[in-house]
UniProtKB/TrEMBL annotation:
It comes from Marinobacter salsuginis. This is Osmotically inducible protein C. Residues 15-37 are annotated as: Disordered. NCBIfam families: PRK10738.1.
């Protein structure tokens, strides 16, 4: 896996993945940025959420669950001192579908957290406290 980061002026950078996708990173105005894109630590948090949501949906599809939406909300706390690393992250999944089995949603979230989500497991090994919750809703 590869990526490149190119400075685009002030506190802005263009991040490009090895698969050719780009995102603009930027800092806040008080640090010379123009708020043109997410901060690098926000990207890390979004990457964790995407990794875990990908796993949850993959597991639910394999379990033949009729999911109509999967929404993940992430909330993180960071250390007060430099480096301002993540200390706690909470992921909350809201899964909506037709006749979903709650035990299978619970299993999917657990398997992602404990076995499949590389980002989550890597951050936990670095000392970040990560928790997961979920709720299941019936689609209309």
């Amino acid at each position: 896996m590869k990526a490149t980061i190119d400075w685009t002026g002030n506190a802005s950078f263009k991040a490009t993945s090895g698969s050719g996708h780009s995102v603009q990173l930027d800092g806040p105005p008080d640090h010379g940025g123009q708020n043109l894109g997410p901060r690098p630590m926000e990207m890390l948090l979004m990457g964790l959420g995407g990794c875990s949501a990908f796993d949850v949906m993959s597991i639910l599809k394999k379990s033949r669950q009729d999911v109509t939406t999967c929404h993940a909300e992430l909330e993180a706390e960071r250390a007060d001192a430099v480096p301002a690393v993540f200390t706690r992250i909470h992921l909350h999944f809201v899964v909506t579908g037709k006749n979903l089995k709650e035990n299978l949603v619970k299993r999917a979230v657990s398997l992602s957290a404990e076995k499949y989500c590389s980002a989550s497991i890597m951050l936990e090994k670095a000392g970040v406290e990560i928790s997961h919750t979920y709720e299941v809703h019936e689609a209309e």
